[in-house]
Amino acid sequence: MATNAAAGDAPPHVVEDSRGAFRVLSDGTVVRSTPPIAGGRGGVVPADPSVEWKDSIYDAALGLRLRIYKPAAAGGERKLPVVVYFHGGGFCIGSYAWPIIHAACSRLAAGLGAVVLSADYRLAPEHRLSAAIDDAAAALLWLRDHSTADPWLAEHADATRTFDQCIYAYE
């Protein structure tokens, strides 16, 4: 005698698909596509010799990182303004390390003659709002607290001239 499997025994199925960036399954699991990795140093984006960059952790407990860019020619008595860049993606997709974001921040640092911080944040739907907003605030607090402790910031950045840039759509 055959029996019907209970609805709870069925394997999870896709209930939402965000253009292949991530899928939400019926059991609540979120499956993200493999993100592109930025370069500059052997990656997808060609190196820009006019800009230097390094990665830092701004929230170790949550594993949140940011990337600091500065013009290679930075130096002298005049400190540079700071632009804090939050990538777009509607709080659902994107990363500070994506090649398109890396290239945009490199162009900002070179073109504006500024120190640029590109901060990552927790993404929805795994993390509900206000997680991304809280992370952005934490990145700004990290800048405040590390403007004299981080050698690049201490030497090149004028944290009293800080601007933030939020991009909500792909360029």
UniProtKB/TrEMBL annotation:
UniProt protein name: Carboxylesterase 15
Domain of life: Eukaryota
Native species: Panicum miliaceum
A Pfam family this chain is assigned to: Abhydrolase_3
Residue span(s) of domain Alpha/beta hydrolase fold-3: 83-162
Signal peptide span: none
A GO term, aspect molecular function: hydrolase activity
InterPro entries: AB_hydrolase_3, AB_hydrolase_fold, Carboxylest/Gibb_receptor
Organism lineage string: Eukaryota, Viridiplantae, Streptophyta, Embryophyta, Tracheophyta
PANTHER family given in the database record: ARYLACETAMIDE DEACETYLASE (PTHR23024), OS07G0162500 PROTEIN (PTHR23024:SF149)
